[in-house]
UniProtKB/TrEMBL annotation, chain A:
Subcellular location(s) of the protein: Cytoplasm
Keyword Amino-acid biosynthesis applies: no
Subunit structure: Heterooligomer composed of large and small subunits.
Official protein name in the record: Exodeoxyribonuclease 7 large subunit
Function noted in UniProt: Bidirectionally degrades single-stranded DNA into large acid-insoluble oligonucleotides, which are then degraded further into small acid-soluble oligonucleotides.
Top EC class, one word: hydrolase
Gene name linked to the record: xseA
Source organism: Latilactobacillus graminis DSM 20719
From TrEMBL, chains B, C, D, E, F, G:
One MF term in the entry's GO annotations: exodeoxyribonuclease VII activity
Catalytic activity: Exonucleolytic cleavage in either 5'- to 3'- or 3'- to 5'-direction to yield nucleoside 5'-phosphates
Main location: cytoplasm
Source species of the chain: Latilactobacillus graminis DSM 20719
Protein name (Swiss-Prot/TrEMBL): Exodeoxyribonuclease 7 small subunit
Record text on subunit structure and interactions: Heterooligomer composed of large and small subunits.
């Protein structure tokens, strides 16, 4: 008996089965062909659908990253070639194909060729060659396309609406089928040889990849690159990208867009020119106004309007200095005069006049005293002398003579007192009170005798 | 003058340059004056060029190398 | 004189320098007088230049015809 | 004389110096007299310079034409 | 004489010295006389110097014209 | 003589000394006479000196002229 | 003689001495005579001296001018 523990879980079995798928080298890369079934486009998401043929059906998943790379829109019933791997989704137990690449079945060879050429040209750097600038105001535009159909009509209509002064020249060309590529190349060369065109529009309407194929030819691509005239390409619908579109200077989604790219709108341009003139006026007016304002700001400065303010202060200074000068000098003179007058007064007070008067008085007094002193002195002396002389007179021995006496002297005035003093014949003198008498001794008589 | 030899686009470019320069406001007065005069002249000339140009009919390059009018139907 | 060769802006800058210098008040009298005279002359020159420019503009506008000058003057 | 080459400010400074010196009262009389006379001369020179400046200015303004002088006189 | 070369202040100082000496009263007559004479002479010299200075000032003011002298005298 | 070199005061002092001596009365007559004569001579000298001084003063005042002396006398 | 060298006062004193001697009465005539004679002589001398002095005084005073001599004579 099998024990319950020996039973496999669903998960274990599923994991086992998944491992089998994963490890199988054939299922890792499968090239599968079939019709698309149950497709409903889920924008910007992973896509889930089925692939089937008459007998079988397989679930398919295409992740967002892979789906974004495909160049066509899948449709119900469309036969496709896919590359992918087979694996198992554990949650549902379904096995499915994980599609990496998908392309419509039957076009595969062209597609391959397209991819190969694109890779080659890309390696050459043709897509990176600098694009020529479109002429903004083309005079002549060459349109290389089919003379019939909507393309040329759209271009003509759009150009006439926008820029009717441009000359459109249609260079009719087959745009599909054998020989179309050669014709396109010839036309491109022709336009370039003619040389008097500003812009080339090359293109055709939408169609299958086979229809568009001439525009994927290398010759055409090289002719476009070689063109000296800027080229706008508009091939097929917006989703179709041809080599021509890649190498053209500008790609337009539609012929109308191509014409719009090729031409400006004439009325707009005229308006723009007028606007520019207006802007010129305005800009220059502003410049003038600004300069005027700056100038008038400067001119309004008081130093230009009231320049006297530049020296007003000076006027006052000078005036004040003048006043101070005069005042200082006057005070100076006044002080000097006062000093001088004061000294003069003091000098006058010291005038020697009074000194002189005093001196005069002193001299007079002294002189007076001198006189008086001398007089007194002389008087005194006279008094004394008079007294002495008076006294002498009183005691004068001559007074005895007055009474009749005389005394005798010899020649020598010596008084002769006694007889013995006399000699005979001796001359003698008799002194009387009033004179002198000369005599001779005639006899001598001694008294006792 | 040299101006006459310039293309419409070159003239237009000059005009645009002049307008831009003047609009910066940094242009010295005399230079601005000259630029202004030149700019006005250019804009007049260019406008005349555009408005005097004749309308054209689309043509087709015939096999013989001649440009012939397209049939009216195509142009309509 | 050399002045005629100076641009409007150079003259304006000179005038500005003179006005600024005078406004500081530190300029010696004689120098201030000379500066003042030069300043007045400069402002005359500048006004002439401006009025010439305005006339030129008016003339250009008149030649051109339209409403533009009115606009411009309103903004001036 | 050398005085004519001196600037207004130099003369003013000299006059100030003289006045200040005189105001100290320490200047000997004869020297004070000389200084005073020089001071008077200086003040005359200064006044002449100022009145010349005034005339120059008036002339400059008159030459300048209309509005400025009127303005100036009204404000003066 | 040498006196003429002396300044007003020197003369004033001399006069003061003389007056001071005289005021002490100790001066001998002859010396006092001499001193007094010299003093009188000095005061004449001073007077002359002052009156010359005053005349000069009056003249300067008269030449100068205006109210200043009057002012000054009122203030003096 | 040596006398001439003596000052007024010295002479006066001498004179006074003579007078004083004479006034004592003790002076011998002859000496007194001599002294007297000398005294007289001295007093003459003194008077001469004085009269010379007075003349000088008169002259000084006359020379000094009008106003100063008047001023001075009024104030003296 | 020695007398001449004597002063007036010495002479006077001698005279007085003679007078005194004589007044005693004890002097022999002869001596008295001599003394007296001497006295007379002395008094002559004195008189001379005095009168010379008086003349001198009178003359001096007369020369000098004034009232003094009259006074003196009145008093003499």
């Amino acid at each position: 008996m099998v024990k319950p523990a020996d039973y496999l879980t669903v998960t274990a079995l599923t994991q086992y089965l998944k491992a089998k798928f994963e490890r199988d080298p054939y299922l890792d890369r499968v090239y599968l062909t079939g019709e698309i079934s149950n497709f409903r486009l889920r924008p910007n998401a992973h896509q889930y659908f089925s692939l089937k043929d008459r007998q079988a059906k397989i679930s398919a998943i295409m992740f967002k990253s892979a789906f974004e790379k495909i160049k066509f829109t899948p449709e119900e019933g469309m036969k496709v070639l896919v590359v992918g791997r087979i694996s198992l989704y554990e949650a549902t137990g379904n096995y499915q194909v994980y599609i990496e690449r998908m392309e419509p079945d039957g076009l595969g060879a062209l597609y391959q060729a397209y991819e190969q050429l694109k890779a080659k040209l890309s390696t050459e750097g043709l897509f990176d060659t600098s694009k020529q600038q479109l002429v903004r105001f083309p005079k002549r535009i060459a349109v290389i396309t089919s003379p019939s159909g909507a393309v040329i009509r759209d271009i003509i209509t759009t150009t006439q609406r926008r820029y009717p002064i441009a000359q459109l020249i249609l260079f009719p060309a087959a745009v599909q089928g054998d020989g179309a590529a050669d014709m396109l190349v010839d036309r491109l060369k022709q336009v370039n040889q003619q040389g008097d065109f500003d812009t080339i529009i090359i293109g055709r309407g939408g169609g299958s990849i086979e229809d568009l194929w001439p525009f994927n030819e290398e010759r055409v691509a090289r002719a476009i690159v070689a063109s000296q005239i800027p080229i706008i390409s508009s091939v097929g619908h917006e989703t179709d990208t041809t080599i021509a579109d890649l190498v053209a200077d500008v790609r337009a989604a539609t012929p109308t867009a191509a014409a719009e790219l090729a031409t400006p709108v004439l009325t707009d341009e005229v308006l723009k020119l007028q606007q520019q003139r207006l802007r010129l006026y305005q800009a220059f007016s502003r410049t003038l106004a600004l300069n005027k304002k700056q100038l008038s700001h400067l001119e309004n400065s008081y130093v230009l309007k009231q320049p006297q303010r530049l020296y007003d202060g000076y006027l006052q200074n000078v005036d004040q200095l003048k006043r101070r000068l005069v005042l200082a000098q006057q005070q100076r003179l006044q002080v000097s005069r006062q000093n001088g007058q004061l000294l003069q007064q003091r000098l006058q007070a010291q005038s020697p006049t009074s000194t002189l008067q005093q001196a005069q008085k002193a001299v007079n007094e002294t002189k007076h005293r001198l006189n008086r002193a001398v007089e007194a002195l002389v008087r005194d002396r006279r008094l004394r002398a008079s007294q002495a002389m008076g006294a002498l007179d009183l005691v004068s021995p001559l007074k005895v003579l007055g009474r009749g006496f005389a005394y005798v002297t010899g020649d020598d005035e010596h008084v002769l007192r006694q007889t013995a003093d006399f000699t005979i014949d001796q001359p003698i003198k008799l002194h009387v009170h009033d004179g002198l008498i000369n005599a001779h001794v005639t006899a001598i008589h001694k008294g006792d005798e | 003058m040299a101006e006459k030899k310039l293309t419409f686009e070159e003239n237009l470019t000059q005009l645009e340059a002049i307008v831009n320069e003047l609009e910066t406001g940094d242009v010295p007065l005399e230079k601005a004056m000259t630029a202004f005069q030149k700019g006005v002249k250019l804009s007049q000339t260019l406008e005349e060029t555009l408005s005097k140009a004749e309308k054209t009919m689309a043509k087709v390059m015939a096999d013989n190398g001649e440009e012939v009018p397209l049939d009216a139907e195509t142009q309509a």
